[in-house]
C-alpha cells in the first residue's frame, strides 16, 4: 500500500501524510473509508506507531480525516472544502517560487516543461 523512502530527508510522518492525501485526492480512498489502525500500519511498514499517530493527527488537523473514539480514523467528507483553502496556500507559495525562479534565470518555457512532466507522471499513476 505504501512505499516510504527511509533515506529521504523528509520525515516519515510527512511522507505518510502526503501518501494519504494522494490516495484521497485520486479517489483510491473515499469519504468515510476507514484508515488502517495505527498498530496495523505500524506493523506493515515496520515503523514506530508514534510516527503513524503523528501523521494521523496532522491529517486530522488539516481536515482530511476524522476520528471516532473506539472505531478508528476515517476519510472526511469535507475534503473539497479543505482543498479550496489549501489551493489558495499552494497558489501563493507557487507564485513566490515562480517569481524567484524567473529572477534566477529560469525561462517560462522551462517552467511549462516542468508542469508537463508532472502532468505526465500524474497520468501514469491514474492509468
Automatic annotation (TrEMBL):
This is GntR family transcriptional regulator. SUPFAM superfamilies: Winged helix' DNA-binding domain (SSF46785). InterPro entries: Tscrpt_reg_HTH_GntR, WH-like_DNA-bd_sf, WH_DNA-bd_sf. It comes from Pontibacillus halophilus JSM 076056 = DSM 19796. Residues 10-78 form the HTH gntR-type domain. Gene3D superfamilies: Winged helix-like DNA-binding domain superfamily/Winged helix DNA-binding domain (1.10.10.10). Keywords: DNA-binding, Transcription, Transcription regulation. The keyword DNA-binding applies. Transmembrane segments: none annotated. GO terms for molecular function: DNA binding; DNA-binding transcription factor activity.
Amino acid at each position: 500500500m505504501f512505499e516510504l523512502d527511509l533515506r529521504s530527508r523528509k520525515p516519515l510522518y510527512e511522507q505518510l501524510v502526503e501518501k494519504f492525501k494522494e490516495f484521497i485526492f485520486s479517489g483510491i480512498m473515499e469519504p468515510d473509508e476507514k484508515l488502517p489502525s495505527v498498530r496495523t500500519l505500524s506493523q506493515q511498514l515496520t515503523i514506530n506507531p508514534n510516527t503513524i499517530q503523528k501523521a494521523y493527527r496532522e491529517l486530522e488537523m488539516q481536515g482530511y480525516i476524522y476520528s471516532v473514539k473506539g472505531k478508528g480514523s476515517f476519510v472526511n467528507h469535507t475534503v473539497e472544502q479543505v482543498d479550496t483553502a489549501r489551493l489558495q496556500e499552494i497558489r501563493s507559495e507557487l507564485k513566490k517560487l515562480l517569481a524567484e525562479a524567473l529572477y534566477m534565470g529560469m525561462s517560462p518555457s522551462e517552467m511549462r516543461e516542468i508542469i508537463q512532466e508532472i502532468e505526465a507522471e500524474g497520468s501514469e499513476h491514474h492509468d
